[in-house]
UniProtKB/TrEMBL annotation:
Start and end residues of each ABC transporter domain: 19-257
Top-level taxonomic group: Bacteria
MF terms (GO), sorted A to Z: ATP binding; ATP hydrolysis activity
SMART domains, per the entry: AAA
Record-given protein name: Iron ABC transporter ATP-binding protein
Organism of this sequence: Erythrobacter longus
């Protein structure tokens, strides 16, 4: 299949809602991470996913993208039931999302450009090497990296540059869905703010739906349309931050009304 430029946001096909999780159960031995978890993600939104340690934020994301087979429940992504489709159907859906894992998860022996080419080789092996390189260069620039980063290896990059290189790879296939796992973790405030702006701009320009796991309150306030809160093995609340602030749950109250939450809100109002 020949490569084409991304379509305008209004032309992209993305069912509404593009992600529906129903009755999700994830168990590891005797330990239950999720028990009857439900979540719907709206088309074109940036949804932030928060929760305390051990609430299974990354497990939820891995379940949605097919890397973790749930114990029970249903997951529909882009109109396909991920939990019971065959391999060929899952491959078809996988072409339509991109994933930035925490830390970037780059291949250390490949250059940035070669890392971006990996999904192109996997899903579109018929594309010529020259075109793959051109696409990789374009995606690197789209992620906010300078052109010379294409030829650099991961060990030559700063933490922020590694995140952007991972983002470039996540964008390689012109996805409809973008999954980001702690994208600003380890970044300084300036770098984190720049990554937030980049995420928002890409969402608006490319018509993306973004599933974003984060602990960063500034990110939640700055770019998330809604926030889903994981606790008690479920999504206990989902909504805008003002809506969540009306929710009477101890963890939500401590998270958003604690010292860091008050600081983030004060910075937002400044």
């Amino acid at each position: 299949m020949p490569y084409t430029e991304p379509e305008a946001p209004h032309e992209r096909f993305c069912p509404d809602p593009p992600i529906v999780v129903s009755g999700l159960v994830n168990r590891f031995g005797d330990f239950t991470v999720h028990d009857g978890l439900d979540l719907e993600v709206r088309r074109g939104e940036i949804i932030g996913v928060v929760g305390g340690s051990g609430t299974g934020k990354s497990v939820l994301m891995r379940s949605i993208i097919g890397l973790q087979r749930p114990t029970a429940g249903d997951i529909d992504v882009l109109g396909r039931r991920i939990t019971d489709t065959d391999l060929d159907q899952r491959v078809g859906v996988r072409r339509r999302w991109g994933v930035l894992f925490q830390g970037g998860a780059l291949f250390s022996t490949l250059t940035v450009g070669e890392n971006v080419e990996v999904p192109l080789k996997e899903f579109y092996p018929e594309i010529s090497p020259k075109l793959r390189r051109e696409i990789a260069r374009y995606k690197v620039l789209l992620s906010g990296l300078p052109e010379e980063a294409v030829l650099k290896y991961p060990n030559e990059l700063s933490g922020g540059m590694k995140k952007r290189a991972g983002l470039a790879r996540a964008l390689a296939l012109d996805p409809e869905l973008l999954f980001l796992d702690e994208p600003t973790a380890g970044l300084d405030p300036i770098g984190a703010a720049a990554f937030d702006r980049q995420t928002r701009d890409l969402k608006e320009t490319l018509g993306l739906t973004v599933f974003l796991i984060t602990h960063d309150l500034d990110t939640l306030y700055e770019i998330c349309d809604r926030v889903a809160v994981l606790a008690d093995k479920k999504v206990i609340a989902v909504g805008t931050i003002p809506e969540l602030l009306e929710t009477r749950h101890p963890w939500i109250d401590e998270y958003f009304n604690g010292p860091r939450g008050r600081s983030a809100l004060a910075a937002r109002r400044a």
